[in-house]
Amino acid sequence: MKDYLAFFTGRVEAEARGGQLESFINQLHRRRIPIRKPRRTEDGTLIFLIPRREFGRLRQPAFKTGTRIRIRKKQGLFMVLRPFRKRWGLAVGFLLFLGMIYYCSCFIWQIEVVGCEETSAVQIKTDLAEMGLKIGAGRKIDVEPIENRYLTGNEKLSWMSINIRGTTAYVEVREKGVTPEVPDETTPTSIYASRDGVILSIQDYGGFRQVEVGEAVSAGDLLVSGAWTDRYGVRHLTHSIATITAQTYRETEVVVPLQETVRQKTGKSRKKYAISFGKLKIPLYFNGKISYNEYDTILMDEPLRIGSFALPVRFYVERVEEVETVELNRTPEEAAAEAKARLAFYQKDVLADVVIRDCTLYQSETEDAVRIRAVFECEEEIGVELPIEE
Q1: Distance between CA atoms of residues 180 and 221, nearest Å
Q2: Cβ(128)–Cβ(146) under 8 Å?
Q3: Does the reported pTM lie above 0.85?
């Protein structure tokens, strides 16, 4: 606790020199002059800390013992502000700054939208601004009517929550997602093969099976029929339901040239800074011309914050990275590695919903490229339900 008081009231780090330092310390104890952290240096100098208000009481003990006192350092908030005690402009400016902070804390200066995947966060901010929730709106705005009004008739969002913390409005949304199509079981349908394969399993719940497990089928073949004729020659139609899994083969080819023209970064970059106050944007650079022939631009901005309070001040950083068009030369080994990397991306992206049992690669080289043909042995559902045309 005394350290905190010393920080606000101020304290002095002093040094004492003389031949009677022990008597000097005894004098201080008799007069109850508090000193802290006393220590002796190699040359016999006594260094200690003393509160600012007690420093004047050292004169008499020092005079009686012939000790010389010198201030080494002044510490504490009081000591820092003391040289500015006659500069009223600083005090007025500090008070105005606090008043500005308090005034700005009464408004919303940032809106963050989370939970968007298919919906545009920019569009949500635009719609909310038309309803009153925008940059510069008061923090005491009633958000419940805005939430209900926004969700009314909205086909993309199922839930919205607006929470104002500090000067930031956090908008959390939840999308409805894709509404599954409810099959119309009154419509007569048959199931056909979507691709070539060998049937591994059939689970049919409606219709009449036309193939068996182990049979090879081609794309377009009838697998389950929804049309049948009874013994009296009357034709009937029904809705077919079945899950048919088959062993299929997927094939793709990747060609990587040994020489290729690509764009790559040179390592040279330049930054341009700007600051905005509300809608006023002030550039902090003199020459905005870019000397690079080709470049990529990355723009970042961040609001000025004090704790959880965002102020109406934003800092902008525009990073310009130079790129150049170069002729890339690969060895056959490097080209093969690049081709396999592209195949891995194809497998992860295109075949994400397919079970891959095996993969066979066929590699060939020419004078100017490396070619890899990949054959994937897969297990997937191939049944496609189509309506029966009468």
Answers
A1: 27
A2: yes
A3: no
